[in-house]
Please model this.
Amino acid sequence: MANLEKYRKFLKAYWWLEREKVKTDKQKKVPPPPLQKPYPATDTLIDLLAPENMNIGKKTVFAAIKDRKTHRKFSRESLTLEELSFLLWATQGVHEIDKLGRTMRTVPSAGARHPFETYLLVNRVKGLAAGRYRYLPLEHKLLPLAAGRVPEQLIAESFWGQSFIASGAVIFVWTVIPYRSEWQYLMVSPKMTALDAGHVCQNLYIACEAIGAGTCAVGMYDQERLDAMIGADGRQEFAVYAAPVGKVQGNG
Model:
């Protein structure tokens, strides 16, 4: 139990005292990191449906929260591009960029730092080729990374034998770019990041319920394998959370 206490400390509020002893890069007037991971200007992006053009997800908030549950069984039915657009907007969609250069999104984030990038392993989405993609929230578009479905065996191995994950129509993988939060919060940023990750995945749960789909939050994975799968360097950016999404089959 004594060994566990040092890990529990990061969940407590003590680090705020440490933060007061050192100036943050924000306080030093260092420019903030980019709101979004850069990509080559020559890359071809894939359009998603704009929120104002979506005609799905009409289930009431009350009903979506009441019916929300974890699902580990998915049908072979494909998601539509509209449904995927809705899920991406619901989890990281940008409402506006304020006068301080911060993004106001569909999920809260400490200091509006939004330290995550969203990657997709696409298996079955109508109108979208199977492959690996990154969501660009500022443009509300997809950036293709690699063509072709990731082998189920590789996915299972990357998630320590949790084979149900590969059966999802889409697998969401969120990475963190730590410096986005560290720029403002220094040693408090791991706590802030953990809280922010929960906000994002809960929105995915509610959004899935609203369109008759299901998901399962996953925190157990092989760090190096998953980072390599999505192209994260493992130091300045690394995977922190994942969730397969699919149409519901059985009771989950």
